[in-house]
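Project channel, design review

CF: Before we commit to the Brassica carinata constructs, I'd like one complete example in the thread so the newer folks can see what an input/output pair looks like. Taking Fucosyltransferase.
RD: sounds good, go ahead.
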Amino acid sequence: MPMRHLNAIATLLIMFFTLLILSFTGILEFPSASTSLPHHDSSSSSSDAVSSDPFGDVLVAFRKWDSEVGCARFRESRKASIRGNVSSGALQDSDGSGCGELKMDHVRVLVKGWTWVPDNLENLYSCRCGMTCLWSKSPVLSDSPDALLFETTTPPLQRRVGEPLRVYMDLEAGRKRSGREDIFISYHAKDDVQTTYAGALFHNNRNYHISAHKTICLSRRDRLAKSLLDLIPHHSFGKCLNNVGGLNSALSMYPECVSESNAAEPKWYDHLHCAMSHYKFVLAVENTATESYVTEKLFYALDSGSVPIYFGAPNVQDFVPPNSVIDGSKFASMKELAAYVKRLGDDPVAYSEYHAWRRCGVVGNYGRTRAVSLDTLPCRLCEEVSRRGGKNAGV
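CF: and here is what came back for Fucosyltransferase:
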């Protein structure tokens, strides 16, 4: 989608993608700030001094950044990030162990119960080391499985040698083992198989969750969002804190997004990604601030082309590209955060610095985050089953 003239600043994703969009354009006048941008440290390639130069065309801002900073200086200042260093061991190695540890060349997984597992994961995969992986919800196609995957139901209490390995997945913040599984899948690197919320499959499966559940407005998130939104003009789509005249007002605001939707009767959430691409910033608030619990709320905002303002996992920087996310928890107050966002929105060079990773091809940790996402789960789980010997694994 071509970059459009942007007339607003931010979006808040609440449960199942309720949006709050902070809107301010180059037309609006904000008090000038005498302090420099707090997140531009001495290693930043752009100037710490912030000039007031309100802009509504991001392409013009990018051109200015290209001429004043450029990719060569950005890469030089982000050498460590380019290598994708993860300071806290937050991500597993997607390549796993050596091929010599694999005991099976074909693994069959039967999915028994699910909510987070989309139908389009079903396939026969060609994995590393010449191994193949059949992932299916059909007991006919996978009639002799090497592993059973449970998510909404609890695995059997006991397993004998010769029976499929029991796999249990919990992607919620609390991530509790069932106590009956042989292999545990969750979002943390300490678990048997890690699965992040990054990747395309969470995007493809988004509308399934919206149609199946009503939008949930949580008081903690609403209070946090409102404390910032009271300081900045904004749009709010969805059920929570709506201020645009109804749930589907975005359909008339961005008709070109409706034309891109395949839905017979499109709703506001059917073109969420397109609508978000019109805004400079996106405010993504997690259910809880838990280590490594970085959900699709952030990644969907990031992938739309906006700059996320994030409240959630304290180690969020381990999962995202360098200089791509504003961590709201690092500010002393909402007033300080709001002032920073306003100044950033008035400085085309400083704002463009948050897009430099994308323009210069510097993915950093984000490459590893996507490499262990739901998109790659089938092969990575099958490799773990193969290493353990499948049905021949001991008990």
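RD: helpful, thanks. The first strand starts at residue 10 and ends at 14.
CF: DSSP finds 15 helices and 13 strands in the chain.
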